[in-house]
Amino acid sequence: MPYVYLGCTRDAGTSKKTGNAYDISVVHFAQDASQSTRPDRKKSFGLEPQNLPIAPEAMDEFRDIKPLTAVNFDFEPDPRNMQRNRICGVKP
Fold first, then answer.
1. 75/10 Cα distance (integer angstroms)
2. Average pLDDT over residues 31-49
3. How far apart are CA 3 and CA 28, in angstroms?
């Protein structure tokens, strides 16, 4: 299923609250708002912003992709939580 690519972010540092180190990489995209599975959603139009974790080594694949480009993502299990997937590649 194609997604509308919006951008990528990587935040890394030390939490001021807990003192724990963090390194979070995320892909931001939009998808058809009418595809929502929320039981309380009564109406939806246009696009809805979403984000998913990305493998840090896959960030560079997104460097030359222009925002608002239709893309397909490759997924793999997230090693930090095998119950979830993360993006490991992209095909414009």
1. 18
2. 85
3. 10
Residue with tokens 């560079």: 60
Tokens, residue 45:
């139009």
**CA–CA separation, 69 vs 64, rounded Å?**
11
Q: Does the pTM exceed 0.85?
A: no
**CA–CA gap between residue 81 and residue 50 (Å, rounded):** 19
Long-range contacts of 74-78 (CB under 8 A, 24+ apart): 78/53
Tens of pLDDT, residue by residue over 60-81, are 999 999 999 999 999 999 988 8
- Nearest CA to 74 out of 57, 24, 12, 66 is that of 57
Whether 5 and 62 have beta carbons less than 8 Å apart is answered as yes
